[in-house]
Amino acid sequence: MALLDRAIVRLLPGVPKPVIQRLSSRYIAGPSLDDALRVVRKLNAKRKLATIDVLGEDVTTPDDARALAGQYHDVLARVDEEGLDSNVSVKLTGFGLELDYDLCRDNLESVVADAAARDNFVRIDMEDSSTTDRTLQLYRELHAEGLDNLGVVLQAYLRRTLSDLPGLDNVRLCKGIYVESPEIAFREYEAVRANYVRCLEALVEQGSYAAIATHDEHLIREGLRIVRAAALDRERYEFQMLLGVRPDRADELVADGHRVRVYVPYGSHWYEYSVRRLQENPKMAGYIASDLVGRVLGRSS
Ligand SMILES: Cc1cc2nc3c(=O)[nH]c(=O)nc-3n(C[C@H](O)[C@H](O)[C@H](O)COP(=O)(O)OP(=O)(O)OC[C@H]3O[C@@H](n4cnc5c(N)ncnc54)[C@H](O)[C@@H]3O)c2cc1C
What we know:
Elements: H1 3-9, H2 17-23, H3 33-45, E1 49-54, H4 62-81, E2 86-90, H5 101-117, E3 122-124, H6 132-144, E4 150-155, H7 161-164, E5 170-174, H8 189-205, E6 209-213, H9 217-229, E7 237-242, H10 247-255, E8 260-266, H11 271-280, H12 284-296
Parallel strand pairs: 1-2, 1-8, 2-3, 3-4, 4-5, 5-6, 6-7, 7-8
Helix pairs in contact: 1-12, 2-11, 4-5, 8-9
Bound molecules: flavin-adenine dinucleotide.
């Protein structure tokens, strides 16, 4: 993204919430579980798989964390009842990681056990680098207990990622979305891409299940090259995209015989997720600029 565009995009937190809500509506299923299930039904009808994320990032008490885990039990039950093809994605801070490790572990374990009983799967999203060690530790602890319907996420922008791979048997690989310092993270676009390819090759080589999460055409092509070169069975990998981003490309991948899973967030805590998505949309600078100009000229927004 050009410098001026980046500067404009940094203004996003100052944009009124209703405008953010309007601009980001394509990225979020809606406020309720029914909204998420409606979207998943439509995705499944187009032969796309889903992973449901309950938006709930401002957890401040143990009760909040337990309540969020409770919402995931509801999601798993409804997905099961309705025979939908969707797993769930969870954020450990939502389960209380910053409050108490054991509370978080209990919440995660109960959701993973519920998913196992329903023959479903839980993906642990990766958050900022202050959580990486504890996230990987929790994944490994539950895995060692025999809960293998569980996967984790690694971020190609982190310099450590290649060395985190050994022993992880189900990984979603993404570029990474949080702001990290250059000491621990690659910052240049091409360096992140190159590390993504290195990590994906290593994942496939060690026999892990690979979830290739990107909308970057270069990386989608590299992903296709790598799975083809390894003659991977289609059950051993999948592509993943976010709701509202490049749906046509996802359709093409499905038509070519690949599995594609779409990340479907829903809930009332939509603001932080929306800002992150809008900051990544290359067209956002233009939208914000025209919205600002519109307001300066007195048009209502
Ligand atoms: C399924 C999934 C799960 C993820 N989970 C995590 C996670 O757990 N932790 C984490 O840190 N990050 C996560 N991410 C986010 C990821 O790290 C990136 O921030 C995000 O995917 C953008 O990177 P990209 O590979 O698509 O490349 P980019 O270079 O950002 O985008 C490539 C192209 O995709 C299109 N595009 C990308 N984003 C948008 C958008 N918002 N609106 C419109 N067009 C867009 C544009 O055409 C852009 O040029 C996840 C991403 C996906 C797809």
